[in-house]
Amino acid sequence: GMQSHLQALLSLYKLFCPELVTITLPGKMKTYFKNSEGPWKAAISAVRQRNRGSSPLAQAVFLGTTQPPSRKRKWNTQLAIPASSASNLEEGTQKDSVDLFSTNETFPVEQLQTFPQLLQNIHRLEFPSQMGSVLTNPLLLHYMNCIRDESIYLRLYYWMGQILQEECTWCVIDNTDENEFKSFLKTVYKAECFLQEGFSASEEFLYKSLPLWDGSSCRPEVLNLVSWIPLSSFSEIKSNIYGPLAQLFFTSSIYFKCSVLESLKELLQNWLNCNVTCMDPEPDS
């Protein structure tokens, strides 16, 4: 029979091998197979429109969003720690400052200034509402290392994923501020170096954006993020990282080749350091 999924399969055969399908298929049918060339066509269209100087509404090329993402709020406006909404402190009142160290009160994170304060109040911290402020605050990064709270990581990864999607200069048509995007990638990289582990949001961003990367935009920053990809299966790394980099590697300059090799060397070193810290010490002979 002419079920809809069979019609979709026959239409796919007719597209590539029309001599194999002799029956007439309806013009309109449900789409069951995504066009694999879609991201490339969208990327080429973005480059053409950017070179023409005409900037239509922002369009996310590789993330499959149906509506253009809102870029009204900049990432760098969220790096300052906002006042805690639950602190209920009155300015200039000595009594309230004494109550900060009460065991029944949360410690406002905007008043966290020293490492001893962190140790004394580590179980009473109220995390900031703006997760971007965590990336530039060493004390909060220490807190993330000590307190493995899954909700904090999920909030940070969600925020970071949204910013990477909206600010990527080679995946969003009307975003031409490469210096600002470079600054954000540097901030993410510094936080990864501090934590000695890569963020899953940056890993997902690399997997989706490297096939569309030209090898030139934000080159040092992108390769720095590559060096902190978490250890996973080789087949996944090969298809998502080595494949896109190999296509650029064989057609680029010596400088680019050396940069890629240096990044992969650092990636192996980071994996080795991570595994060494997890290994049990050898028994004494």
Automatic annotation (TrEMBL):
GO terms for cellular component: inner kinetochore; nucleus. GO terms for biological process: CENP-A containing chromatin assembly; mitotic sister chromatid segregation. Keywords: Centromere, Chromosome, Nucleus. It is found in: Chromosome, Centromere; Nucleus. InterPro entries: CENP-I (IPR012485). It holds the Pfam family CENP-I. Signal peptide: none annotated. Belongs to the CENP-I/CTF3 family. This is CENPI protein. It comes from Scytalopus superciliaris.
